[in-house]
Structures are given as C-alpha cells and as structure tokens.
Amino acid sequence: MRQQTQPTVTSNSLVSGIREGLTRPGQKQLPSKFLYDEVGSALFEAISVLPEYGLTRADVRLLRRHATDIVSRLPLPVIVAELGTGSGKKTRWLLEALARRRPSCYCPIEISRSALAMCQRELGDIEAISIVGYEAEYLEGLAQVAARRRDGEHLLVLFLGSTIGNFERPAAVEFLRDVRQILRTGDSLLLGTDLEKPVAQLLAAYDDPLGITAAFNLNLLARINRELEADFALQQFRHLARYNPAARSIEMHLRSTHTQTVTLRAAGFTITLEKDETIWTESCHKYAASEVPLLATKAGFDCTTQWLDHEWPFAESLLVAA
Ligand code: AVJ
After folding, report:
1. Which of the 8 DSSP states describes residue 77?
2. Is the pTM of the predicted complex or chain greater than 0.90?
3. What's the CA gap between 237 and 95, in Å, rounded?
4. Which residues pair with 159 in a beta bridge?
5. Which residue among 57, 162, 167 has the greatest number of ligand 1 atoms within 8 angstroms of its CB, and so is best to mutate?
6. What residues line ligand 1, using a CB cutoff of 6 Å?
7. How far is the CA of 211 from the centre of ligand 1 (A)?
8. How crowded is the C-beta side of 198, counted as CA atoms within 13 Å?
9. For residue 165, which of 133, 197, 121, 188 has the smallest C-alpha distance?
C-alpha cells in the first residue's frame, strides 16, 4: 500500500488534548479518539464480537445485504474515502460490489498506523481495488484525497460504525458540514448511525459482563501512563457506563475510587481527583432513523436512501451533497 504520511502531530495533539481535558474546571474529560491505540483498537475488535454489543454486526449485515444496491446508486467513476476504518473488515462487501462495476481506488483515512496496516492486510486481496492509505485526521485526510481526484471522478465518503455518535449533536452537524465543504455537488456520504433502543440493552452493550469494555476504557489511562510517563493507578478506577436521557447518549466514565493525585510527567502537570469524581471518556449518541435526513439537510446533503436493521436497530443512510 502506498502511504501518504504527514509530519505527524498526533503526539502534540495528544498532550494538549489531555492537558486541556484534565485541567479544566468542572467535569474532567479525555478525548475519545485516544481510546484507539494498538491495544485499544484490539479491545474494540473484541467488543465488536460480544453477544451484548450488536452494533458492529448490524452494520456489517446491512453493508453485506445491500452492497450491490448501495453501489448501484453511485455515479461512477468513484474514489472511496473511509473516515476511520478500524480493521476495514466491513468495507469488503462494498468494495467487492464496486469492483464488479469498475476498478476503483479505496483511501482509508486513519490516525492509527496499525489500523491502516490491518486494513491493507484485510482488503489488499480484492481485485480491481487499489488501496492508498492516509495517516491523518479525518478532515485533513479527506482534503488530501479530494485534492488528488481527476475531473469527472466522484467521491464516496464512508463514515460507518456510528462513529458520528461520538459527537455531541450540534458538533455532528458541524462535522458533516465540514465534510460537505470538501465535497462537490453529487458526491456522496454513506453514514452509519446506531438507533435508539431500550436503555437496559444499551447499558449491557457498554458494560459487558466479561469486562472487555471496562478494559477498553481503562486502557486510555494505561496508554497515558505509557506515552506520557503518567502514574494512573488503574486499580483505583472503575468503568462506568450510564445513559443520559437528555442527550440520548451512553456516556462512558472512569470513576476514581479514592481521593488521589496523578502526575503526567512528560506533559508536566499533576491533577487531583476526589473520591467518586469521574473522567468522562466517550459519548455514544443514539439516533432516530427519521433524524438523519434532518441532520443531512442541516449539513448540506439530501438523504436519498436508508437501509435499516431491525434485529439491532441501526441505519445506513446515503447522503448526496446538495
Ligand atoms: C466505535 C464509536 C461506534 O460508540 O459504540 C464501543 C465505541 N465504546 N464500546 C460505540 C465503543 C464502547 C463505539 N464506536
């Protein structure tokens, strides 16, 4: 795989994101994108096969079942750009359906180099699909893909797995607007959104009895220990998943079981946590299927088609840049 490597700012943005989130007054917070280092990505892969966590299976079912239909709605030729690929496994069905129509280029965009490598291993065998990976933030990578396109080539952006759910609702609109700015009229975005479902089911999905989600969450502290010479004592934190009914989101937190002080040596600061104080690490917003077309309109897209999974309510929506 050819790889467009930018002078990476990941470590700088890691330090400043972490400092800002941990030193601000009120609720401490860590950016959820830092959950996905090599260990975190592997733990997420394990989460995605847990019986309680139906999200990834629903996403894959829809993509597999409807790949031909989805691809038949695209103007060709098309370059496929995927924002955050993880292993890339679920993209196979779309790429195979596309390859049957026309040889195409697939550009995974990932801040994690190990995820890009995994993606290449997973999808590199598909004939008539050439892979060009971008080690970059989403918008930066997408702008680079868009800059390389030739006249008459369309873009299809994949934003799967309900990663959009990590944004607060207004920030989700802003983000889709930023994506729209990079696109041309007629380009498309395939958006995966996890749909609302009973709270008990959501809580089980985000606090599984094996403790894999807890490990995934705690790994964020382990990562900060590794990368920023910090001294978080992992046994003094507990994974917490709770439903926020106003936001319609699951929030993941790490609760401090004691009053304690933590030093992040390489970042040059120390924090104090009270007993039962939490660090907020992720939000997973849930949508109504009917909300997606409204979201799309606000961001400059038309939602032309939706495919729904009923076993684990989930939607793939095809948005066309207006
Ligand atoms: C990868 C963001 C879709 O929100 O369900 C899984 C991440 N966090 N379990 C999600 C996650 C805890 C996941 N996304």
Report:
1. S
2. yes
3. 42
4. 191
5. 162
6. 47, 55, 161-163, 165-166, 206, 213, 282, 284
7. 14
8. 5
9. 197
